[in-house]
Description:
Layout: E1 12-18, E2 24-30, H1 36-40, H2 44-54, H3 65-69, E3 77-81, E4 87-90, H4 92-105, H5 113-129, E5 150-158, E6 172-180, E7 190-194, H6 214-225, E8 230-234, E9 242-244, E10 249-254, E11 259-261, H7 272-283, E12 288-290, H8 295-301, E13 302-309, E14 313-317, E15 319-322, E16 325-328, H9 336-349, E17 360-362
Parallel strand pairs: 7-8, 7-15, 11-12
Antiparallel strand pairs: 1-2, 1-6, 3-4, 3-5, 4-17, 5-6, 8-9, 10-11, 10-13, 13-14, 15-16
Helix pairs in contact: 4-5
Amino acid sequence: MAKSFSLSLYPWVYKAQHQPDGSWQEAFEAKVHLAPEAEATLPHEARMALLARRNSFPDLPLVNYSTQYGFSVFEGLKAFPQKDGSLKLFRPEENARRMRRSMEGLKMPGFPEELFVRAVKEVVRRNKELGFYPRYNPEWEKDGFLSGHAVYVRPFSYTEPGIGLDLSHHPWVVIITTPVGPYFEGPNNKAVTTDRIRATPKGTGWIKCSANYVIPTLVKKEANEQGYMEAIFLDAREQRYVEEGSSCNIFFYLKNGTLVTPELGDTILPGITRKSVLALAAHVGIPTEERKISIDEVLSEAKEVFVTGTAAGISYIESITHKGKTVVFNNGKMGEVTRTLLLTLKGIQYGAKEDPFGWMIPVE
Length: 364
Ligand SMILES: Cc1ncc(COP(=O)(O)O)c(C=O)c1O
């Protein structure tokens, strides 16, 4: 079964390479596989060996600008099992747009959005046809789909061979998929601020590029070792304004009844869940603000805190520790506004609630 976020590649993958004439040469490839039921009964080592073969791309160059210098961008989106047995993607056109902008941000040719959406749908559809997809489970309805599983889709760029510092003119775009279960498990929802810097003004913080994940990964591990679930980054200049989590955006429901999230700029990733939560909150009549918010204001004025992201969905934060002082929100429990937004978002994604925005896109 799908672990929270482990890698177990489904067989069908997609590859496209930018050509000198500006077109993209596309290919779908079915990697080595058995029937899903047969794979599930393999001894652990045999299954790992099979998965390792699926994760081998011998026609892609090992030494290139991605592996040497971090010249790589990626996306993450999910296809959700529906009650009628189908799969639906959540806002794939938003990921398509961000991927194109990320690639252009690293001065690569941007992958066309229409190709992105078509390829993502087709990879998910082909894997489903082979039986590789999580089946809808009515048990998930009992906890509002917090325990729901999904297909995680990971498109990423990969550059042509090269050893000197250079830009990528003819990158590949690869799309792989893997099953995922609930992201944050267990009772710990504590967060801690860090004085390490994720992104600097005029840097790449707004781009979903691999290089941006080095510091957050180190910081998250350090936070975990100290007993926290998540780390919160502050702005580089003053270490005063909240920016985001290690791989998620952040929201504060203030005592005055306003839902605030840090405004976008060049140091914050424009999250698709963030954008969706802003729309949902407005839809249910909660006033929202995108603005700078200081850690001091958060600690004195926030009633509820939660983080958002494709992997996390909406996860409440029970407390924030800043410079050794801990403030607990809503007695350490998930607050009502957080719960409403969470249940609405999950309900839309799993088809149990109306989708007034037309966010869910069938793969077939
Ligand atoms: C740094 C960072 N911020 C925010 C997000 C949330 O973005 P989204 O909601 O599009 O998944 C992510 C997740 O991909 C992330 O890596």
